[in-house]
Amino acid sequence: MQLIENTYTFWAILITANILMYVCTILISHTWSKIHEFKTLPLTKQDMYNSIIVLVINILVAIPGYLLFSNGYILFRTDTHLIRDFVLLFFFFDFAMYVLHLASHHVWPFKKFHVKHHTHTYFNSISLYVMEPIESLLFGLLLTIFVVLFSVNFYSFLAFIFINWILGVIGHLNTKSINQPQFFGNHIFHKTHHQHPNHNYGFYTIIWDKIFGTIFKNKHI
Ligand SMILES: [Zn+2]
Ligand SMILES: [Zn+2]
């Protein structure tokens, strides 16, 4: 916790963590497709530029958060219940992302922003980072607003950031399977969304799609 109170250490950790996550995304996705001999979407120069811009935005979006933290508007706790705060973050964002994603398919201007991510109907190793930069900006700002409003446990917050990333990586792994998951979202669930954009809007879990009737049923194939 003291580590992030020093400006230089904070930015050094944040930038390193973001670059590491980007590199690991490429390594994990590439290795996965190689092992399973999946055909991957060709990697274009445009995808590469786009993914680097999104990586930079993911870092820069922490600026307002850091300023709010430095001025006492964001208070991280270390004495609250770690699992409770993680569950709160997980389900709040699972629902918020479902709603935002639904809006991204039906409401202007979100609809316009989301087109780029859907140019991939199957994946290359950076599909997770191929999106309109404003989409990653919106996610970062939503996260900032959440931690201003709720003083969550610092370690729950870190765990949530990690889980959000790893579930994003898993969601963009190629697959030939059509067996939809029962509770947590995965690569089959999210690839189905890329191919059938009116279904499977959820990210971490499939519960909101089940509740609101947007779940994909294999009989549609
Ligand atoms: Zn996607
Ligand atoms: Zn979508």
Describe the structure.
With 221 residues, the protein is mainly α. The protein has one domain (2-212). It is built from ten helices and no strands. It has helices at 2-5, 7-35, 45-60, 62-70, 82-106, 110-114, 133-149, 154-171, 187-195, 207-211. Helix 4 runs parallel beside helix 7 and helix 5 (82-106) packs across helix 8. The radius of gyration is 18 Å and the shape is globular. The chain starts with a helix and ends in a 10-residue tail after the last helix. The site of one zinc ion has 4 residues, from helix 9.
Mean pLDDT: 93
Order of helices and strands: HHHHHHHHHH
What's the β-strand tally? Answer: 0
Termini separation:
50 Å
Radius of gyration, in Å, reads 18 Å
The biggest beta sheet, please?
none
Ligand types: zinc ion
Structurally, how many domains make up the residues? 1
Spatial shape: globular
**What multimeric state do the chains show?**
single chain
The helix content is 55-70%
Low-confidence stretches: none
* Classification by helices and strands: mainly alpha
> Beta-sheet strand percentage?
under 5%
Provide a count of the helices.
10
